[in-house]
Design goal:
This protein is 17% helix and 35% strand. It is α+β, with helices and mostly antiparallel strands.
C-alpha cells in the first residue's frame, strides 16, 4: 500500500485504501471484528470493540474505507496518544544525617519512598515514578536527601493507540529523523 497523499488516484483505489464491509442484522451487538476486509493483511487491531447495538428488526450495511497516511497530514494517522521524556532521577540519602523520621516518605506525592518502621530505615522503592518535584527534599528537616537528574540518562515513554507497538513507532520515528538529518547534511555540502 502507498500513502494516500502519494497516490495519483482521485480518491480511493486498491493501492492506497482498503474497503471493509459491515452487514449485520439485529438483535445483536456489532463489534469491530464483524468488519470484513477485502485485504486479509488489513484488519481492525482489536476485534472486540463494540460499534453499535442493533434491536430486533434493525440492520446495518456499510462500507468503511481505510487509508494509509501520515500524522503530518492529519491527526487521525498519528499512532501515538502520548510521548514524553524526563531525566532519570538520582536520589541520594545521606545516612549519616538522616534521622529516619519518615517525613520524606509521607510528603512524597508519588510513592517513591517507603519507611520501614521495624528497621527505622527509608528506602527508595519506585525511582522511575519520581517527578523530581523535590517535595521530599523540602520536607526533610535534616537536609539528608538530594534529588537530581542523572546526566545522560532519561526515561522515555510512548503510549500508542494500539495500531502499532511502541517499539515500531520509535523505530520509524528514528528512521524519519535520520533521513531528515541526512537531507540537512546534503543541503550544506
Amino acid at each position: 500500500m502507498v500513502l494516500a497523499s502519494e497516490c495519483d488516484c482521485e480518491g480511493n483505489c486498491p493501492r492506497c485504501s482498503v474497503s471493509l464491509l459491515l452487514k449485520e442484522k439485529g438483535p445483536k451487538t456489532v463489534y469491530s471484528g464483524d468488519l470484513k476486509s477485502q485485504d486479509p493483511e488489513v484488519v481492525p487491531y482489536n476485534d472486540t470493540i463494540p460499534l453499535m447495538k442493533l434491536k430486533e428488526g434493525e440492520e446495518v450495511e456499510l462500507i468503511a474505507i481505510a487509508q494509509l497516511g501520515k500524522g503530518l497530514e492529519h491527526a487521525k494517522w498519528q499512532p501515538t496518544t502520548a510521548c514524553a521524556y524526563k531525566y532519570y532521577p538520582q536520589i541520594t540519602i545521606d545516612t549519616e544525617k538522616c534521622e529516619a523520621c519518615g517525613l520524606c516518605a509521607s510528603e512524597c506525592p508519588r510513592g517513591v519512598y517507603e519507611f520501614d518502621e521495624k528497621k527505622n530505615l527509608i528506602k527508595v522503592v519506585d525511582l522511575e515514578n519520581c517527578s523530581m518535584c523535590k517535595t521530599c527534599v523540602r520536607g526533610c528537616t535534616t537536609d539528608s536527601i538530594t534529588v537530581e537528574g542523572e546526566e545522560g540518562k532519561y526515561i522515555f515513554r510512548i503510549e500508542t493507540d494500539g495500531s502499532l507497538p511502541p517499539e515500531e513507532v520509535l523505530k520509524r520515528a528514528c528512521d524519519i529523523l535520520s533521513d531528515k538529518s541526512n537531507e540537512i547534511i546534503e543541503f550544506f555540502k
